[in-house]
Amino acid sequence: MTGPDTALDRTLELAVLVNEDMDRALATDGLTRSRAHVLFELHHRGPVPQRTLSTALQVSARNITGLVDALVATGFVTREPHPTDRRVVLVTPTEHGARTAATLAAGRHQLASALFDGMPANRVATYTEVLDEVLARFRELTAATAR
Amino acid sequence: MTGPDTALDRTLELAVLVNEDMDRALATDGLTRSRAHVLFELHHRGPVPQRTLSTALQVSARNITGLVDALVATGFVTREPHPTDRRVVLVTPTEHGARTAATLAAGRHQLASALFDGMPANRVATYTEVLDEVLARFRELTAATAR
DNA sequence: AGCACATGGTGAACTAGCTTCATTATCTGG
DNA sequence: CCAGATAATGAAGCTAGTTCACCATGTGCT
């Protein structure tokens, strides 16, 4: 009798597996998860100040500095001076960084397809609907608790 | 048109939220995720050598030593000598550790219920079935790749 | 102009978790 | 009884993240 506990367990299990898979893919490119987050954000934003990354990714400014340090050291990114505001540094993906980001995104897309494509459309639809309802319930719960 | 990418994204999103919630719960008890894994394993196994934890949790022996160190320091666990084999140390949950583990498990169960209970049974069933199929596909993929 | 305050970024020092390599005790089988 | 396996730990280093203090630069207000 597959109850709610089972459903939750399976969800988490899939997430763990997918994340492990992504970590492996990242590692082969010399990236970690945190650094990849930064690289992806840059990839679809273009050159931005670190502050922008900090707020967008919910990561402390100090932390972004460290991650960008690492990305610079491994050649995914460069730091350029801002043309007018000398406080800010513009983090810019290198050619290599951009290509890596694109490749990884494509790989992730392929994975999603391999996992869900070809299933009866109504099953996938039900799956997504249940997920959406569960997410809504979750937000309700935490909204109630966070008071 | 919610495609496979969307389905995967939602799945990961739910997992992230649930994990954050669990982390919060653990933190209020002075635990981290890794330490909690160890504590839970002990909770339903009783006193065992560290080696057992190491293999069961897929964590290096050295690492278990550190986690147990922390659990001892925070009073969730004690190290007892093995009666016959003087190499091994038996890690034993304290009363406090056992109670905490039970409470957290109950909380997790409640969360699962709050998220899924009361839904049409066939919807939850479909949800779980889709997940099972996706998990099966995933394992097929990685089995093919791992060669 | 000039000063107060806000903003962007960093240095230093710390924690958790994890890894590798080496070492110490202890057990076990031939 | 000794060789080799096994249990646990010491030492050192890495990634990620935190907090606190600090410096440089911009901006707004008077």
Please state the overall shape of chain A, judged from the principal axes of the Cα atoms.
globular
In total, how many beta strands of chain A?
Answer: 3
CATH superfamily of the largest domain in chain A: Winged helix-like DNA-binding domain superfamily/Winged helix DNA-binding domain
Helix-strand pattern of chain A, N to C?
HHEHHEEHH
- Report helical residue fraction of chain A: over 70%
Name the chain pair whose interface involves the most residues.
A-B, 44 and 44 residues
Q: What's the CATH architecture name of the largest domain in chain A?
A: Orthogonal Bundle
Structural class of chain A: mainly alpha
Oligomeric state as shown: homodimer
Q: What is the CATH domain class of the largest domain in chain A?
A: Mainly Alpha
Radius of gyration of chain A over all CA atoms, rounded: 19 Å
| CATH fold annotation of the largest domain in chain A | Arc Repressor Mutant, subunit A
Strand order in the largest sheet of chain A: 1-3-2
- In total, how many domains does the architecture of chain A comprise? 2
Give the biggest sheet of chain A. 3 strands, antiparallel
Mean pLDDT of chain A: 93
Count of helices of chain A? 6
Q: Which strand-content bin applies to the residues of chain A?
A: 5-15%
As residue ranges, the low-confidence spans of chain A are none
